[in-house]
Amino acid sequence: MATAFANIAFTPSVKAVQQLHGSRDAYSGFEHNNEMALSRTEAEFIGARDSFYMASVSESGWPYVQHRGGAVGFIKVLSENTLGFADFRGNRQYVSVGNLNNDDRVSLILMDYAHKRRLKILGHVRMIHDTDEP
């Protein structure tokens, strides 16, 4: 687990609940580093996926989760801290795009159901239209 995840996810409220239930000490060591780079293992896991879930936050403060899918490898590791994927037109509601135009924070959950493994990624989105950078 990249330690930057803990710095973002373990808010004071989360830490209080961890303390209450006895898991605080086990996780406190993850917070003292801001490592953001994907490991080779994580990059390989990402490259083997054919779908993921993407959460954005609306202006009303409510989260919105959308499934994205394609051929294995459609989500690509572009660098140690950058992912890319083509987002083809779906039902034309543009909920995720609208949310991300307002707040660029995103959460991705990539699943390997067969092996009971998952990867959670928190990040920021930069949308590029295909006419801007074909």
Could you list some keywords that capture this structure?
globular, Pnp Oxidase, Chain A, alpha+beta, 2 domains, two-stranded antiparallel sheet, 5 helices, 134 residues
Question: How is this structure best described in words?
Answer:
This protein is of the alpha+beta class and 134 residues long. It has 2 domains: 35 residues, no CATH class; 98 residues, Electron Transport, Fmn-binding Protein, Chain A (Pnp Oxidase, Chain A, Roll). The strands form 2 sheets. A 4-stranded antiparallel sheet has the order 2-1-5-6. Strand 5 and strand 6 form a beta hairpin. It is globular, with a radius of gyration of 16 Å. The relative contact order is 0.16.
Q: What's the SSE pattern?
A: HHHHEEEEHEE
Domain unit count: 2
Strand-pairing-aware structural class: alpha+beta
Rg computed from alpha carbons, rounded to a whole number of angstroms: 16 Å
* Total number of strands: 6
Broad shape: globular
| Cα separation of the termini | 34 Å
Question: Which sheet architecture does the biggest sheet show?
Answer: 4 strands, antiparallel
The CATH superfamily of the largest domain appears as Electron Transport, Fmn-binding Protein, Chain A
Mean pLDDT: 90
Side-by-side strand order of the widest sheet: 2-1-5-6
CATH level 1 name of the largest domain: Mainly Beta
Count of helical regions? 5
